[in-house]
Amino acid sequence: MKKIEGSPKNLKQLLQNTKYSIHYYQREYMWQRKHIEELIDDLTSEFLKYYHSNDSRPAVADYGSYFMGSIVLAGKDNAIIDGQQRFTSLTLLLIYLNNRLKSIGQTYNMIETMIFSESFGTKSFNINVEDRQECMEAIFNDSDFDVTGAGESVRNLYGRYQDINEIFPDDITDEILLHFCDWLAEKVFFIEIVATTEQDAHKIFVTMNDRGLSLTSTEMLKGYLLSEIKSDSIREKMNDLWKDRVLSLKKDDEKGDETFIKAWLRAHYAETIRETKVGAVNKDFDIIGVSFHRWVRDEKSKLGLNTSEDFELFIKKFARFAEIYEYIRKAETTYSDETKYVYYNARINFTLQPLLLLAPICYEDSWSVITEKISLVARYIDVLIISRVSNYRSVDYSTIKKAIFKVIKDIRMIDIPTLKAKLDAQYVDLNFDPVKAFTELKLNSFTKRYIKNILARVAGYIEEQTGIASNYCNYMDTNTKNPYEIEHIIPNHYEWYISEYNDPDDFKRWRNSVGALLLLPKSINASLNDSKYDYKLTKYCSNEGNIYTESLGDIAYQNNPKFKKFIAEHNLGFESYDNFGKDEIKKRTSVLIQLVKLIWNDEMFK
């Protein structure tokens, strides 16, 4: 092996005017929303530990640093052998910060040179991958990008940038945004390890990961727990149990073991959480997210780890709850009637769900009890989401984690009757008023994905109630050639409706009302952009949408006894409309509210 060089470098030193390549065999960018959430939460929480009100920008020079781990590079073209996911994600964060600064009329001189650099009059991104170029340009210009048919990396890049836009915390206000940029560029460090050849770089990577030079938190936790077990034979059995479960957790996610352990410890053992204010210190919840192996060691009394038998039982609990966690993760990705609420919540990226679902489960619970508890809590989450988003309140990680932590502690390891009672009390505390919320609910950049989910749930519910298999999964699937999209019943031509609406703003408000929206396949939606209602109605009733869409016309009520029975049983205000204006929007909103009351209520907790 030739000369190896390693040195600490901050993000500015690593990225400014420096090009990196990623070889074809390890090119995919794989991070999901949960990874971005943890990264943003870790970085912003660390920054806010040091920031004090009215600090000047030069004061950031005395702030503490944050270590991001190592990055392994090879050759003259700076091929990234290890560190691509973090580097790419940090580049997305830098682009977000750059776009936000531009939106408030500020600049950060070095930030663009950390994102891209220029050579012979041609600009290119510092992490230079050809098939990502078009997507990265759209992200940099803060413009829309159609990911239909795109590869996995491109879909993930665009999705994670949207996630950053949604989850970046309000605590980092416009007034301190430059302070945060300074800290990110100057105080976030990597250990850069550079090898002359790619072969040597891979040897370094293997050595670091296979020979203990860079043990993960999971490995260090295992080592600590096993060291406290006196019996050699028991220690060997617990080691095998641990290894088998970790291998299973890592099957579809290389960080799956760490993600589970954080969720389990937070769900069952954490007692405190960092205050949402500048200068606050990390508590149980936050420390677990950074170094759970140290937290377990430091808090062993809190966890009841006193004897050799306690450590053995803790590993058995680890294995049991890991199995339950895997069941939850499967329910999030695969629709099943038994766990449908888990699936619904995952479809709109509620990443705190596993913590809440694990909270009430006891080690001794049977699978029938476990599945019932999971269904009850998932149903509560379902109502929690709809109650917040319909009132324009975020359910993103950084915004809601403290409120969720309170619920976790309230429902921690209890029986089913107690769980139902507590969830019903939590439901009452939500003060969910569908009439007030949905009368005011409008389509905008925040509500778009939630309204699509609401319309998909409503259509799926009607299908279930009328003897048809719910098509919800298809309504929400974006990875098809012809995905469903939100359709405005009223075309975007104010000049056609001047007599009915006061002004363009009044027209826009009514047009974006939730009662004036439908779901249609993209191809049909695009073909109807400039069509008037009478023509649109013929398409709505052509069996290419769904029963909720079709119910605008007469045909939905003809030779459809199950639908008519469903309407009569619940006294629903469905009717067909020859025209569609303000009065029809009001009526349609009233019908939607009736359906919302049927779909989102607290009957399960009674």
TrEMBL record:
Q: Where is the GmrSD restriction endonucleases N-terminal domain?
A: 11-225
Domain GmrSD restriction endonucleases C-terminal positions: 447-594
- UniProt xrefs under InterPro entries: GmrSD_C (IPR011089), GmrSD_N (IPR004919)
The highest taxon in the source lineage is Bacteria
Q: Which PANTHER family match?
A: DUF262 DOMAIN-CONTAINING PROTEIN, SLL5132 PROTEIN
Stated name of the protein: DUF262 domain-containing protein
Q: Which organism is it from?
A: Lactobacillus pasteurii DSM 23907 = CRBIP 24.76
